[in-house]
Amino acid sequence: MLSLHRLPGVPTAKQPLFPSTSTFTHPPRRPTCLFPQSKTLPKPPKFHKSPTALLQWNRKPQLSGETPRVVVVTSGKGGVGKTTTTANIGLSLARLDFSVVAIDADVGLRNLDLLLGLENRVNYTALEVLNGDCRLDQALVRDKRWSNFELLCISKPRSKLPLGFGGKALIWLVDALKSRTEGCPDFILIDCPAGIDAGFITAITPANEAILITTPDITALRDADRVTGLLECDGIRDIKMIVNRVRTDMIKGEDMMSVLDVQEMLGLPLLGAIPEDSEVIRSTNRGYPLVLNKPPTLAGLAFEQAAWRLVEQDTMQAVMVEEEPKRGFFSFFGG
Ligand code: ADP
Ligand code: MG
């Protein structure tokens, strides 16, 4: 069994670190890890996948829920992968033929445009739209590769938000996106700033669902737990979690919490688990999102699968892998 007791500051995986804000009941503890374990470990019980949980690449996922789905990508802690997730899930959704608008609500430190390689094409921002200096379609930057993906930046880099800019302004922008002549987008993704101050409140205001990003470390988990509470207070009940920067070698060495440990602590449904992958950093620096890479990378595939689940409002479970994977890493997700 993976022992968390050996990690400094981590009491036990059976008791959540922080009071849980959801009604999640903890499943019985078992030796669990998303990633391959050594052959010497006892065989886990057989895991039966539900048909809906199997990824069916030969069909388009069925969009569940009313459009536009306004999804905020948030975390509390900075640097855990919100912007990376917004870019990669956004482009995955566009590749699945859904229309997507990604809003960079990280005002002072915007960088979604950089990750997407669109920085030279941002001439106008949402602030200019709100001031009446330009039209909304002038501030929307269409991706050259996927024309059904558009980026909207709230402000210029290093600029401060004017007093009075808040959640209502973002609601106005979302309403304006809904009533465009081109039609309402299927997804509006909002890249949230770190922290829980005014920028965070503004970013979550128009959202009706959230993707909470966390890494498997206790500082990110504490922030994620706090943010979950705040989202629920704001009436956002549909919160799914992505565990990012997961390292198989560290989980095996019992130096990192497994994805299931994280899920048990936060009590949130799991949308995806993204491995630590140097390709993410390479693609960030090239301004070329990972999901567009050919051949696909492990992290890129994990983002694509998370996008698929988002469309269908599906979730996954972290399961123990039976011995060495024979059918590939991604065949071990269940419903
Ligand atoms: P945030 O928006 O939460 O501040 P970013 O998306 O900007 O975080 O990511 C912070 C850094 O972490 C970036 O340099 C990014 O390339 C890196 N990163 C994110 N996810 C991964 C991953 N799965 N593997 C490796 N590096 C990652
Ligand atoms: Mg960011």
Automatic annotation (TrEMBL):
Record-annotated CobQ/CobB/MinD/ParA nucleotide binding domain positions: 71-289
Any one biological process term the GO annotation gives: negative regulation of cell division
PANTHER family from the UniProt entry: SEPTUM SITE-DETERMINING PROTEIN MIND HOMOLOG, CHLOROPLASTIC, SEPTUM SITE-DETERMINING PROTEIN MIND HOMOLOG, CHLOROPLASTIC-RELATED
InterPro entries, A to Z: CobQ/CobB/MinD/ParA_Nub-bd_dom, MinD, P-loop_NTPase, ParA/MinD_ATPase
Gene field: LOC107491107
Pfam name, any one: CbiA
GO cellular component annotations of the record: cytoplasmic side of plasma membrane; cytosol
CDD domains linked: MinD
Chain positions covered by the region annotation Disordered: 1-31
Protein name per UniProt: Septum site-determining protein minD homolog, chloroplastic
Family: Belongs to the ParA family. MinD subfamily.
Entry GO MF terms: ATP binding; ATP hydrolysis activity
Keywords, ordered alphabetically: ATP-binding, Nucleotide-binding
Superkingdom of this protein's organism: Eukaryota
